[in-house]
Structures are given as C-alpha cells and as structure tokens.
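stuck on this:

***
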Amino acid sequence: MRMRRVVFNQKGGVGKSSIAVNLAAISASEGRRTLVIDLDPQGNASQYLLGAGTQPAHTAVDFFEQFLAFRLSNEGLNAFASATPFANLRVLAASPALGEIQAKLEQRYKIFKLRDALNDVAEDYDDIVIDTAPAFNFYSLSALIAAESVLIPFDCDDFSRRALYQLLDRVAEVRADHNESLRVEGIIVNQYQSNANLPQRVVGELREENLPLLDTLLPASVKMRESHEAATPLVHFAPRHKLTLAFKDLYAELSS
C-alpha cells in the first residue's frame, strides 16, 4: 500500500521535521522506496538527512521555479530530488529561497503543481512524507492538497492544545475546498513525559473529546538532538533506544 502524508502544525517546536524524517527512515529501512519533501525554508529535515552545510545540486526552489519560467516541458519532480546516505531514501531538499518565490507562486496560482507532480511519480515511491513550515502558507496548502493524510505533532501544553482546534478546522476547510479525500491520520503526542501530571491530564482530556490521538506516545529524549547533530535518523543512529522503538511502534500503528 502506497501512502502520501504531510506532517503539519502551525505551531513551531513540536517536532514536525523529526517525526517526518524518522518515519521516512523507518519506511526506507524496511525496503520501501521513500521520498521526503522539505517545504520549510529552514530546511531542518534536509539538514537531518544530508548534514548541515551540504548543498544539493537541486532543491525545492528549482522545482517550483520551473513553473514560473513558462517552460514548454516541465521536468518531473525526480529531477530535483537528491539521494541520501540511506538506502531507499531520497529528499527534495529545502532552501531559504523558498520564501523569496512564495509570493510569485501565489500570484500565478501554482497551488496544484505539487499534487500534479506527485501524481506523475506515484509509481516510483511507496511512501512520500512532506514536511512543512510552522505556518499556513502557499507551501503548506500545496502539501495538504497533494497529500492523502495529515499527521499532527502535538506537545502537551496549553498553547499547543489551543492551536490544535484551529488546525483541525483548517484541515477541514482544505478538505472541503480543495482535497475531499484528505483525512487526519492521527495526532502524535511528542516529547511525552510519563512522570508529569500535565501531559497525562491533557492526553486523557483529548481522548475524552474523541480526538484522533494515536496510541503511541513519543517520549522526550536527548537522543533526538544527538541524532540531529549526527545527521542520522534514529533507526540508524540508535536502533535499540527507547525513542527509536517508540517510532517503530508508531510506524507499525500507522501501517496497520
């Protein structure tokens, strides 16, 4: 079964890039042809996979700029994706210049170009994971239009909880206006502290509201930052660590 999902939250610091990359790395480690698309100008997912300071030959900016150049024959998305050091795993890397061309893309209504490009390469990948900036903008809307499902990272604090309801409304609006097949695949509780009262209470209350919380809770761990620094996803960096095992449980839950 092929899957095309976007990891999305309008709030920063909730672990979007970490979740996107580690789920993609597990998928690739199981032999599935996997693509990460990084649409965040900060490029955290790209740096996680390629290493800080690495300059890939092409980026997502090159992909989107072709639609502003009125070329007679647009190149497919695969022409702009880069190999990573990890088998079966490619990345369409981000660039700070994504922010510079955003207004032009909006003005020319190129909002469906990512969806069309992913449809064209549908047979080339088993899993596609899209990482977005912590904002509702041209790129996140493009991702929501192109995806089949949404994963929502969630931190157990009051600010995240308030933002969650607005985010769910936003996804419902995109579904109604642009992508009727879009579904919320689940809310991922990240950096969960099992010995603290607040996270336990918030998770319990959200379950009582029948929100689509996934069963797997990702624990807080310094190991995540260490894997960022090493530019190596957890499944390769620390395969037996508790956080890695939690990600494997999450991947299995999503695949069931």
Remarks:
- The longest helix spans residues 158-177.
- The two ends are 11 Å apart (CA to CA).
